[in-house]
Amino acid sequence: MSNWHVDDLVEAEENPPEKETPRASAPAEQQATQATPQQAVVQTKILQNVAQDKIQFRWKIVVVGPGGVGKSTMLHRYFYKQFMPDMIMTIGVSHMSHVIERHGKIINLIIWDLSGQKRFEVLHPAYLGDSTGAFIVFDMSQPDTIDEVPKWAELIRRYNAANKALPIVLVGTKVDLLTDQSQLDATYKKIEEKMAELELQYVCVTSSKTNYNVTETIDFLVDYILWSRGL
Length: 231
Fold this sequence. Notes:
It is built from seven helices and eight strands, in the order H-E-H-E-E-H-E-E-H-E-H-E-H-E-H. It has helices at about 5-10, 30, 70-80, 125-130, 150-160, 180-200, 215-230; strands at about 25, 45, 55-65, 95-100, 105-115, 135-140, 170-175, 200-205. An eight-stranded mixed β-sheet has the order 1-8-7-6-3-5-4-2, sandwiched between helices.
């Protein structure tokens, strides 16, 4: 059974209440023992024109997944607070660098958004290494995209072999397109099976269209990295 109810997932959250916490979930059998970062009610600030000597951390975040699942749209929603329904699919690799302030820490997020199209797979090894964290993105309304999660997890781990604790968060996009509870339950069951198979711990569901859980998802990875490093 899914952890979510479809009526909760399709609600627009253009201005979510401050008490909202990220809907990041571990598989049920892990939840009792899995240590997780405690996410405080804190607003992330997107900073402009920050002096280089003020930046405390520079983190490389890779965002991967099949083409057309909404990776770039999610990032645009987070950093620019806009929904771009007709965003052009990434060709090759897209790079962005933003400075944020979270929990009093000034962090430069250096994000590599990798195209999921097969013709660009030859480029992936050059950009996956030395990562601080990773998102593997799939489309909640297209369950077949979940089948590509193992490939991406293997690539991320292969090119970051020295970092066994590299945080990888699964992200299901376009949840606003799901209106049937049985479909949601079936999709979540498939996600849980992949997570157990790959020993992945966290999944977040989002909608860039309604701004559901986008901010919370990216903040969750930032908080996880801070927590795991004792910062």
